[in-house]
Hints:
The protein contains eleven helices and ten strands. The chain starts with a strand and ends with a helix. It is about 35% helix and about 20% strand.
Amino acid sequence: MQIQLFAHRGGMGRAPENTLASFQQALADGADGYEFDVCLTQDKQPVLIHVDFNRDSIQEATGCSIPLSELTWQDVQQLTMLTSDEPVAHLDDALRFTREHQMPCFIEPKTDVPEVLPIIVERVRHFEVVHLTSILTFYLRKQLLVDAKRLEPKLRTSAILINPMANFRKAAAAIDADRMILGWSRINHFKLYNTFIPTVTRQLKQLRANGVVVEAGFIQTAKDVAWAIKNGVEGLWADDVPYIRSCLKEI
């Protein structure tokens, strides 16, 4: 089985996260797709900055102490990502890149404000990349995924599941998710849980039997890669795609 590799925030271990430079690096690294975060400026322009959910501070990402809700797109254009000269990207920059290279993208809205999904869907349609786009978020925010498909039924949705004790198949079916991504932390809770109560492997088989793509999130070590392969995971999310590919080759 061919394991796909996806670049988290464009492959933040290889280039400044959420920037065109990181997307270009992900492409050069042979990633099968890339993910980025979307927030809204004061004038409702979608920009690519990682923040905590429904939080306003962009200081950690850009060094700017002014909240994003007080900045217009014109203001944001004067900023760069921290420790680099890379400018803050607009959603249009990413979607244009996706269209030009026909490279699948995964969009994680970092806010629940009502305007964010209609804005994202409108821009995705404008660039004619609906077939290449997936809306991604944690299962705890599953309503966002439901709303995305309501606005554009052809959009794919990807849910990050962090509870190894959940009923995977039921969770995926409840929101008609196309992908379930297991885990998103530095500890593989699914591997630990399966060691004592071996239900994870069985549940993964059920997901695949129901046509749901199964992936593993935030893969960082060779041990995580080995666990994923053993359990038939079809895709791996990583900050450093070449390193994870080298782990795959060794295994």
